[in-house]
Protein 1
Amino acid sequence: MVALIDCNSFYASCEQVFRPDLWGKPVVVLSNNDGCVIAANREAKALTDIPMFEPVFKIREQLKAHQVNVFSSNYAFYGEMSQRVMNILHQFSPQVEVYSIDESFIDVTGIISADATAYAAQIRDRVYRYTGLPVGVGVAKTKVLAKAANRIAKKFHRQLNTVYVIDTEEKRIKALKWLKVEDVWGIGRQHAKRLKSIGVHTAYEFTKLSAGWVRRHMTVVGLRIWDELNGRPRLGIQEMPKPKKGIGTAKSFGRPLEDLGLIEEACAYYISEVAEVLRAQKSCATFINVFLHTNRFSVKDAQYSNSITITLPVATNDTLRLIASAKKALYQIYKPGYRYKKVGVCLLGIVPQEFVQGNLFHPEKKNVQALMETFDRLNYKYGKAKVYSALCGNRKKEWQLIQEERGPRYTTRWDELAVIHTKKQPPA
DNA sequence: TCTGGGGTCCTAGGACCC
DNA sequence: TCTGGGGTCCTAGGACCC
């Protein structure tokens, strides 16, 4: 049996944990650059004129009218709260697969007692008690069914209290008949459209299609889902996260940029960020991909986008070498005269640091490892980007993303800790 | 004025090898 | 009339996830 634990409206819930004054009130969290709504709590979802993924500038009036509490995204904070939740889940099973920032699968085979619902409720209660975050728990024989159970748990939260177990054939059939085909985990827009066109509207109807049809039109991926819905496990619990195949970042600028100098600085800064992640997992990169594009939504701006992948002479995790290569790549795709909206970098061909193939003509610079370690130690101790390459420049204000409403980073900054005021000592 | 970011996996087709 | 068979590697594109 597998349990799926999923935090309710995770980002919005995080913002509410240390703000009791917001409990029961609508809260939304915005994407980077304060672009669109990417998370909304139950109260905000109830306001039908505030759809998810809607650009903020289009719904500013509605947000104001409903007195919605709006936050910029605060990933340092969400990441740390996620860590707390995942740590608690390890108390319930030795096998935990952290699937995303707000959900985990845990293997409860042989652990879950006769009363599976009570066990699931215990998970929910402990996470809430230790972190203040509400979660839903779905339990079933396969991951795809656990996902379905979780959806039922949340949909009928009043009756079920956000916990649901599919442990009998009757319950499985009932769940599948209720679940719309487009809501099956792994069936997206395209496949849902095709399935509906042949009269398949529910998960149950999907399971009644032939294996051959599913394989032909939805590849082996679809077939696995089909099996899982039929109660045959095909997706295992992936305890050890696979090493990443690429580490990238790409963020929109706060305003459009034409100047190559500024784009170079942003690019160098992004490289510094991803190189730090690379070193943290003790790897080196063999290729760098750099891409650049204008604002695709703008009708009046001329459009241009390009991307290039270059091979490094030697796989490396040296920020300075990576920046030098990325800059060369950027020069090859930059064309003057456009208003650029975004530059992105991606490190590829990731290999363990100890297996890097040397290059006779590009000897490793002396003391590079020591220098990078010093970089990372200082930045860990004194805060992000306290030490950086001069190639990142000092004009970050000109390109960095907009975050007007970011809340405190309660759990990762000493000067932003939550403060509790008592009645006797009013705030100074 | 203003429209997110970071990933995974699979397939088909082309280039190439012997 | 008829033009092999068995591979690998790479890339682009499509589909999906949170």
Protein 2
Amino acid sequence: MDCLSSTDKCQKIMELARRRGFFWQSYEIYGGESGFIDYGPLGALLKRKIEQKWIDEFVRKEGLMLIDTPIITPSIVFEASGHTTYFTDPVTTCKKCGRKWRADHLLEEKTGESFEGLTLEELYKKMLENNVRCPECGGELESPKFFNELFKTTIGPYSENVGYGRPETAQGIFSNFKRLYELARGKLPFGVAQAGRCVRNEISPRQGPIRLRELTIMEIEFFFDPENPKCEKIFEVKNEKLRLLPEKLLLDGVTEPIEVTVEEALKNGYIKSEWNAYFMVKAKKFVEMLGIPSEKQFFKEKLPNERAHYSTQTYDQLVELSRWGTVELSGHAWRSNYDLKMHMVYSGEDLRVFVPYNKPQKVRRLLVEPNKKALTKDFGEEALRVSRLLTLTQPEFIRKSLDENGFYELKGDGKTYRITFEHVNLKEVEVEEKGKRIIPNVAEPSFGLDRLFYATLEYAYSEKDGRVVLKLPRELAPIEVAVFPLMTKDGLPEKAKKVYCMLLDHGFMVEYDESGSIGRRYARMDEVGTPIAVTIDHQTLQDNTVTLRDRDTWEQIRVKVEKLPLTLEKYFREKVDFKDLAKLC
RNA sequence: GCGGCCGUGGUCUAGACUGGACUAGGACGGGGGCCCUCCAAGCCCCUAACCCGGGUUCAAAUCCCGGCGGCCGCACCA
């Protein structure tokens, strides 16, 4: 099976996906639209099962809250989150044929280096240096411009009411923080999960199911106190091994991941947040449950210029795929308090959390009081936001900068405001505090469901005796059990249908098939990953036993019909090995 | 720096260079039947396609242009 060449394998999977109804390109009858795929009957089931597995592992077992918020989002939300400013990619246009391309991707193809995070000028300079041309017609390229990848729309009949399709589900969580914090009964830490459709107007998606314009993201925002960032469950995973490629080593030119325990990774500062480390272990195990062995995965830290605008540290979980090389399946960002802070600035809501002291403390505090008049004079409509932003900034920083430079550069939603002495009154006061108000920090594990789906298929794909066997993990199989009468006579179909109905009643996903030869029916089920086939033969009519046939070994055992639901229950829910099932019967 | 290739039933493809007998062939799949069977057996019947639009021509799957979609190589870099 490993002798398959990489394109071969991918082609075979894509073909299987179309032929058996896992997925295909959308809008085929109109020539297709790149960046969109349809999930077919089996694909839709498999996708849901992967999502369900994720909910089971993260929401149920980790005690997170699952929510579901809209795709369409009013523009102010993404102004606050910074996406209207930062969710952009450099696009360059061919002077000859007019085609548009991701400038950094063209450079990357050309040089093999990564060019994320360069300025437009730097990019253009590099493009000229490397003589990057239009891949389609060889024409000269214009200097790149930033293209915002948010899908824009209007809400209702008023064209000025702009909305965007969300590029991540996270903002639906952040904008609900207050209510969710209430539902968490006012205690940190707590986590919120969401799985849903997102849209990103990619400039030129060319990697099939890997780079989509409409995708499903499953993400968690885990809120914790930055002054008490300990993960209380870290001891459970401290000896777990992670394959890591941290920034420190990347900068030294290391290209192979190292294997370290979680404890070491934290001690060496490879991973800065315990909560992120904890979820990285969970992510490794989750991906393993999809059939992708841990030695095929590793986590690579994003360099500062590659990171998203909100991130303090990000690791990508990568996996090796046959055609597309190493591909990100999940990202693990430490989002600091960026999002909540910006939503405070834009909404005016207090999204801080009150953490009481054991007893009240008298403290001297430096206070920064915004001077409304001066702010309005200099910042007009933005004055209110500037003033909110000011009160959320460490007063000491402001004073230090004012003292040293005469001004302070207040950074917010992609803009920088120059604050001078006249904008603020600095006061030192003695106050009695009963507790502190903090903006929680956020650990964000974020998974791309479509990529997980593809990777699952690829790692399940195998061939045996010239036919395809899809070795999906049993709990992911879209069809769990197939029921076949050995022949279509002597009452075998009737008996088989009874067994089929009984299994349906017990909640299994079952398929009945009586067409063609028995071997052909087994083969069909192997190809779509059905783990168990139940066959009704002449012996069934005598002693009420059926055969169970294992997808991976093609071995068979006989089981009493009455014991069938229980046996399958053991197999699917309790993960009893096929060969041990016989002993139970 | 440069170039190239491809799009035909559900899937894989023949046909294209050299336009006409193509009513578009095959294999696999799928449906029905025979057979009555534990790993894609065999036989019969059926099913279903030239990516879209325009042009050239008496005639276009075939040539030209445009669109949509898919893909690759050399060189360079490491």
